[in-house]
Amino acid sequence: MAQEADNTLGALTAQRDELDRLINEMKERDRAGALETVLKKIALFQLTAADLGFGGKPGRQPKQQATRASVAPKYRDPETGATWSGRGKPPKWIAFTEDRTRFLI
Questions:
Q1: Within-domain flag for 61
Q2: Where does it sit, as one GO cellular component term (predicted)?
Q3: 84 with 73: CB under 8 angstroms?
Q4: How many Å from the N-terminal Cα to the C-terminal Cα in the chain?
Q5: Are 103 and 91 contacting, i.e. CB atoms less than 8 angstroms apart?
Q6: What is the domain extent for residue 7?
Q7: Quick check: is 9 in a domain?
């Protein structure tokens, strides 16, 4: 019985492979004809990519990235004149200072 199942499974697999090959051949043959027909229609009616729906939705602009306004500096290094807004990673000249009030602008 196991041998019959192996033979049947092998036969079905071979049939499937043959059908897949035939399907692919038929698709390629039909694809070439369809492409030729479509290209003729595009040329006949002088259609553009926009006419065919390519290139985005008409009348809709892409979203623009919001720009952030720069923040006024809050601290100034008295030695170099460098400034820091108080946001983000603190620069070395103020990073290890316990009392930052002496650097306030």
A1: no
A2: nucleoid
A3: yes
A4: 92
A5: no
A6: 1-52
A7: yes
